[in-house]
Design a protein that fits this description.
Mean pLDDT: 82
CATH topology: Rossmann fold
Oligomer: single chain
Low-confidence stretches: 1-5, 11-15
Helix content: 25-40%
CATH superfamily: Vaccinia Virus protein VP39
Strand content: 25-35%
Number of strands: 6
Number of domains: 1
């Protein structure tokens, strides 16, 4: 992650990572696109910044959840996206740090296709109860971008 951050010019590449970067309980919302895969899953990109973006070579989902839990105030919201096939691991990591999943929405390429991504809202101290929203279709039945997709990404 450090290399990816440096490559994108966000902060100095010597930054020590997400683990301890934020003030405790100072934020209402955290948003993350965490690493999707373990370093042992499949081939990683030979480019370090690309490998870190998709694999947990720099930080893990556990690291990201821990940092969000530390940064968020009680009742704070944590938004993230993750592959549906790893949803059990996602829920376990969130629960480990006191998050409760409050809303989920599955993203599908087109009607009839399996979900590629799940968008998730979790809250600290949120209690039980989760709303599952209607699927987000990237493409409509005609193969073109869906109306909702075009509204989000004009």
């Amino acid at each position: 992650m450090n290399e990816g951050v440096g490559v994108n010019g966000v902060v100095d590449p010597a930054w020590e990572g997400v683990r301890d970067a934020f003030a405790c309980g100072a934020y209402d919302v955290c948003i993350s696109n965490p690493p999707y895969f373990t370093a042992m899953e499949g081939a990683l990109s030979p480019h370090a910044h690309l490998a870190a973006a998709r694999g947990d070579t720099g930080s893990t989902l556990d690291d990201v959840c821990r940092a969000a839990a530390r940064a968020l105030r009680w009742g704070g919201r944590f938004y993230l996206c993750y592959p549906p096939r790893r949803i059990e691991y996602l829920h376990a990591c969130l629960a480990k740090y006191g998050f409760h999943v409050k809303a989920m929405r599955f993203v599908h390429q087109r009607p009839g296709a399996a979900a590629q991504l799940v968008l998730c809202e979790a809250r600290t101290g949120g209690g039980e109860g989760c709303e599952i929203s209607a699927p987000f279709w990237v493409e409509g039945a005609d193969g073109g971008k869906s109306d909702e997709y075009r509204a989000c990404f004009p």
